[in-house]
Amino acid sequence: MEDGKLTVRAVERALDILLVFTEHSSLGMTEIAEKVGLHKSTVHRLLASLEGKGFLVRDAATEKYSLGFRVWELSAQLSGQSDDPGTLLLPEMERLRDLVGETISLYIREGNERIRIQAVQSRQAIRRVAPVGARLPLYVGASSKVLLAFAEERVRDGLMSGPGWPATVNRAAFLRGLEDIRALGYATSVEEREPGAAAVSAPIFAGAGRLAAAIAVSGPSNRLHLDKMREIAPIVMESARRMGKMLK
Q: Domain 2-72: which CATH class?
């Protein structure tokens, strides 16, 4: 039994190391050890195993690690699934990017976080770069508000009364804001999560009115100001409606 617990712990630690690369493209062993909170000798052994299996590769010149070919093989299998929304909706996301000229992101909710599962970057020189796989809190940002506003009431209440909801956020005021979002059909945010960034988001409903995801247009706040977001909101909502028809 003890050996089994040690094996599970090793797997969890290895997965923690891989998850560090959702926010970083390459890291040294010391940096990885700091981020996962493990001793360097433990991290060294896990890195050797992950490298041996092809999940990580090490640059001999820089001594830094990055994701290996096995990760891309797994990703290819996911993208090949006919019901994968990130794949199905990509052409419409590219179409929306070309219409509004800004970065497009697709989010789903998992627990008390939202995850960016697909992104199409703007072609503008100054743009909002959106890394796929990023996990973000549900209490801030246009897409977070959309995923809460259009969720089932019991789901919304459970999330907002759960331990992951910060006490600093006024629940009554936030709920009033969600009512406004439901009436408008979209949400906006200006520098709520990071300075200089703004976004407008709309819900994507699949069959039988099920909330499937949120689509967001994001960019620099000096270009994507409130008047501009109100102007393009109908385009975003129409694109979300088209995306919903593509999903089951």
A: mainly alpha
